[in-house]
């Protein structure tokens, strides 16, 4: 989490993360200390509906990570990522791979496994053909380390269908679907 009032598309990003990692995990939300979840009843309701446990936002994320080294992080941009290693990194929400890995970025996101950004007229418009009209979709870009062994180049997450579609770029500039991962329909 971040400041509650700055969270954009939280439910969709959280559903993407849950689809990416599956039902074998417990999911936690840790908001920013300046916007404790206890003061935001609509946020509490959202987390309850998504079966995501709230963590006391007054506890520093670095402290939580120190005492829980098996945790994986996915979420919005945060300097917390500078306090952890690649073993804890998951997905970064709201920044493309090139934005996140830019030398001008004050946070080192090179440890992240994937990067997700919405597909709309302003961002990632060239991928809109892979989404049905009216569908809420996200481009998922993967770290170079993952791409070295993967049989795909990127993925499209459809929040509408709660599914991840993995694609390989073809020599002619098109895309070939190579795998599909369906999420839990309760998200």
What are the main properties of this structure?
5 helices; two-stranded parallel sheet; 187 residues; 9 strands; single chain; alpha/beta; seven-stranded mixed β-sheet
Quick overview:
With 187 residues, the chain is α/β, with parallel strands linked by helices. It is built from 5 helices and 9 strands, in the order αβαβαββαββαβββ. It has a 7-stranded mixed β-sheet with strand order 3-4-5-6-7-8-9.
What's the helix and strand layout?
Elements: H1 10-21, E1 28-30, H2 41-49, E2 53-55, H3 61-67, E3 73-75, E4 89-93, H4 97-100, E5 114-118, E6 137-142, H5 144-147, E7 154-158, E8 163-169, E9 175-182
Parallel strand pairs: 1-2, 3-4, 4-5
Antiparallel strand pairs: 5-6, 6-7, 7-8, 8-9
Describe this protein's structure.
This protein has 187 residues and is of the alpha/beta class. The protein is 19% helix and 24% strand. The chain has five helices and nine strands. A seven-stranded mixed β-sheet has the order 3-4-5-6-7-8-9. It has a two-stranded parallel ribbon with strand order 1-2. The protein is globular, with a radius of gyration of 17 Å. The two termini are 18 Å apart.
